[in-house]
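writing this on my phone so excuse typos. first protein, seq and then structure
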Amino acid sequence: MQSAFGGIDFGTSNSTVGVIRDGRARLVALEGEQHTLPSAVFFN
C-alpha cells in the first residue's frame, strides 16, 4: 500500500491543498484547473 500525505493551507484570503505521494509534492486542482480558492467560513 502506498503512503500519501496531505495538507490544507487555509489562508485568510485563499486556500489550497497539497499532497505528497511517492515522494513527490503537488497541488490539487480544486475547481477546474485552479489550485487556490477564496477562503470562507460559514457557521449557523
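second protein below, same order as before
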Amino acid sequence: MPCPSSNSSNSSNSSHDRASVAPLAPALWLWLAAAAAAVGYGVGLPSAPYPGQAAAKVLMCVLLMLSALRHVPVAERVRLCVALAASGTGDVLLALPRYSFSFVGGLGSFLVAHLAYCTLFAPLAVRPAGWRLAAAAALWTAAAAIYMVFLPHLGPLAVPVAVYMCALCLMASLAVFARGLHPLAAMGGFSFVISDAMIGVDRFLEAFAASTYGIWATYAFAQLALAAAIVLLPRRGLSAG
C-alpha cells in the first residue's frame, strides 16, 4: 500500500490543528472582553456610586459565562456557569449597599459560587502532598487566624461568616489539588481568598485606603484566572506532589 505524500500529510495535520484551535477562538475573544470589562469597572471606581454601576460590575462574569458556553466536558461547563452566575448575582447585590440585604445576600451568592467551583475541582483533585499540602495548610491556618481576629466584630454573622470562609478555603484548596489544570487555577483560588480577606478587614475592622481597588483587582484576577485555567489553557498531566 503506497504511503500518502508528505504534502497530503502536512495538509491533513494542518486542517486538524485548525479544527482543534477554532472552537477556542470565540472563547478567547470573550475572555479578553471580560478582562477589558474588569479593567473598565476598576477605572470607573473613583466615580462610584453611579447609575448603572451594578450592570458594569456584573459584565465581567456575564462575558466569562459566554466564553464557557462551548466548553467540554458539559459537566464542567454547567458548574462553571453556575459559579459565574452566582458570582454575578453577588456582584450586583454588593453594588447596591443601600439595601439592607445587600451584604448577606452577596455572602450567600458567593457561597453558592464557591460550592459550584468545589464540585468542578473535586473530580480533578489528587491526594495532596508536597507543595500542594503545604499551600493548603498555610491557607487554612491563615484563615483560622483571620477569623479569630474578625470574631469579636461579627455579632450575628459569626456562623454565616465561618461557613462562608470554610467554603472559600475548600474551593481554593481544591483548585490547588486539581491535577492537570494550569497553575492559574491555584493562583485564582488564592486571589479569591485575598480579596475576601480585604472585604472582611474593610467591613469588620477598619476601612483602609484603596481597599475598593485592591478588592476589585484581586477578585477580577481570581475570576479571570479560574475561567482561563478551565476553559482556555491546555490540560497536562501533573504529579501528585
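The chain has a mean pLDDT of 89. thats all i got for now
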